[in-house]
Structure formats: C-alpha cells, structure tokens
Design goal:
Layout lengths: L1 E5 L5 E5 L6 H11 L8 E6 L5 E3 L16 E7 L11 H16 L8 H16 L6 H11 L7 H13 L5 H13 L7 E6 L5 E6 L3 E6 L4 E6 L3 E7 L2 E7 L5 E8 L3 H19 L5 H4 L2 E3 L1 H7 L9 E3 L7 H28 L1 H35 L12 E4 L8 H6 L12 E4 L7 H17 L1
Parallel strand pairs: 1-5
Antiparallel strand pairs: 1-2, 3-4, 3-5, 6-7, 7-8, 8-9, 10-11, 11-12, 13-14, 15-16
Helix pairs in contact: 2-6, 3-4, 3-5, 3-6, 11-13
Length: 457
Amino acid sequence: MLFHVSLPNSLILGVEVDPKANGQECLDKICEQLDIIEVDYFGLMYKGSKSENLWLNLRNRIDDQLSGPPPHQLQIKVKFFVKPHYILQESTRHLFYLQVKQELHNHVLTVEDENKALNMIALIAQAEFGDQNHNFYQLNKYKDVFKGLCEFTADNVHKVFECHTGLCGTTAANAEYKLLQEASELDNYGMETHIARNGNYEEIEIGVGPTGFFVHNLAHHTTQMVAYPLIQMATYMDKSVVLKIYDTDGEPKNTMGFRLVSKKAANALYRSVTEMHSFFRCDTVRNDVSTQFSRDLKGTLASLFNENTDLGKKYVFDIRRTCREAYDHARRKLHTNSQMASTNNTVEERSPLQVHTVNNELQLNTHTKLEEIEMLKSKLQCIEEGFTCLVCRDNSIQTALCPCGHVICCQSCAEQLTECPMCRSQIDKIQRVFIPGIQGTDSQRIDIACAVTSSET
C-alpha cells in the first residue's frame, strides 16, 4: 500500500508498507528516511470524512483506519512538543522547527509580545537565508517571514533588519534551536486544538497541552483552564466526551461535556487528553492505558470462545513511552549506534581478510577512474574541436555571419568570405562574438589528475 506523507515544508515522501501492517511500521519507515531516531515525539495525521484532523493509531492495522483507494495522504507531525533541550538529534530539531514555523504562519501559535515576534522573525530569516548581506532579495523575502507573526510595516522591517544583522555568524541549526526556545515559552506551545460544542450548543475550542486543557468559549470569549491533577475521569461515547473535575480541595466539582462533529473526533479528543497526561505527567505509561482496547463484532464473537484472542482487537491508545522514557530510550539507542560504528571501524582495521578485500576494491576503483578520465579527455577534445574555425581549422570561432547567423569561423577567415560555407547565402556583414572556450588549463588538469591517480596505483 502506497502512502504520500507530507512534511510541514510541503515536501512529500513516498512510503510503501503492507496493508495489514500497523501504523508504527509506516512511521518507522518515514523516520528512517529522515534519519530520525526520536520517533516517540511524532505521529501520522490524516483527514476524517468531515475534514477533522485525526491521529493514525500506530498500534492498529492501517487498512482498518483508512478508507478509499491508495495512495493515501498522511502528514508527519510533532505529537508531543518537548522542550528544545530534550531533543538530541539535529534532524529531529529541524522537523520541530518546520512545524513551529508553519504554526506561527497559520496563527496556531500566537505571539502577543511584538518584540518577541520580531526577534522570532529575525531567527527564521537567519535560518532560511543566512547572514544579512544588505541584499534587496532578502528584504523582499521578509514579507513571507512576517506572515502570521507581525504587521509588515517599514518600522518593523527595520527592526527585523537590525535583529537579523546582529545574528551574523549564527548557523542555521543554532538559529532553529533559538527559535524553538522562544516558541517553547509561548502559552500555547504544544497545544492540540479540537472544535466542539458545550451543553448549551455553543461552539468552543478545546486546547489540550502538556499541563492541562483549556476551554475557550468562542461566543463569550472566555477561557477556562483545567490542570491534569484536577481531572477525575475522562470517558467518551458516540460523539460525546465527558470529563469529571475535582475542585482545588479534592472534592468532585462538576462534569464537563463536549459534543464533537463525529465519533472519530470524540475518540481523538479522548485520546489526546489521556496520552498528553501520560506523556508529560507520568513516570511510565500505566497498564490500564496501554492495554485498553475494543473489539469489532467478529472479535467479540470470537472472544466468547477464546478470551485471549487478538481477532478484531483495536487498541484505544498508541502511546508507548512517557517523556522521560522517550528521552532515555533515544539516548541509549544513539549510544548503541555509536558503539556499533566504532566496533565496525575496529574490525575493519584489524581483520586481514577485510583489508585484502578493501585493497582489491581500491584497485578496481582506481582502474575504473582511469577509464573515466580517458573518456573525459576524449569528450573534451571533441568539445575543443567544436570551437575551432571550420575553414582554417586553426583559430577559434570568433564571428557570426549575417543575416544567416551561422557561427562557424574565425575573424580572419570571415573577412575573406562572400558566401556562408554552410547555407551559401550572401554575407551582408560580420558580427564579432565572444564564445567562452575550453582553455588548455582544463586539459592539463585532467592530465595531472591522471598522473596523480597513476602514482597512487
């Protein structure tokens, strides 16, 4: 089954997996292409039938979750936004940066402080364009960077220009890291948004983040924050999600009910609250979270005869590790990979059989390079002949014959011609032209390279 997986920068990767495979296999293949080991921070998102954003459950079969003919469209996105100093790989940090930049431009991440926004624009400009070199092209590109962050005015452009100039010498990777540091200080950093309706049928926006969830009433412009320790229980049924809340004294306070656009959207909100809490607030994933599942009709009938059957089993959550466990797992994996690379290098140095094999490969490669050099020399000779006057075969081509336009001879020969040797048309005038020729130094370089390669052999 073919998947087109889009990155936050609109780059699309093609991935092919078995239709019966689970989502984790697809994510692992994508991260392998991107050279990412810290897989636990990411997920695969797709659009539901009502255009709702849904996370692919990585523990369940893909063909049970997606409908329609392949290729299926997926997005790789950051699911758990950890602080930048927890990120170990530069490739992981770059994907975080791409999504943060996208969310800033799309107003998903909002920056209230104008000075902070201008500084973030300068960091994006440094990461994208490098050092400020007073180039008019860079100034024009500022308009794209301003999108979603700040008003594009002459005064703001001047401030960004000064900030960008002050970042001279900062590498793209360092600029990306600094942008993530700035973004991680925002209130809605790592917030996953869901649109629902409350008990009064008013439209609300629910933001699920690392510390808790926020309920923003779009009609009354009010916001209520509920920290994870105050949540007694979360349940969902059909299109509804119900949360039982404690008060600050630990007593049951009230029940919050939300109705979403579809059953899958309700399941997505239920998963989001549970998995965010498990990832950021727990030391390990609890057994009641990792083992929670449902069955389809066929699986339910089969379970009547065999309670332990996996037929029709669909896991509710796909979280495997908490924040601390994901960080430790990535560190161990990177350490193991570095040790394996070091061991392989040692074995190559100490094994006589491998040394003999490498020497044979070097000799074969050297012979192949010599053949390639000879082929390049013959091609170069043909090119040089193509720039030689077709009349005297001595000087280089220097003129164009008018009006036919043929460029075939040198200045000396052209002055003696009355007709074009190619088309026999009368020559009205001769136009001097400059053709960048192939100089002798290039041939000499090839000869020198050939001599060096021969001496190495």
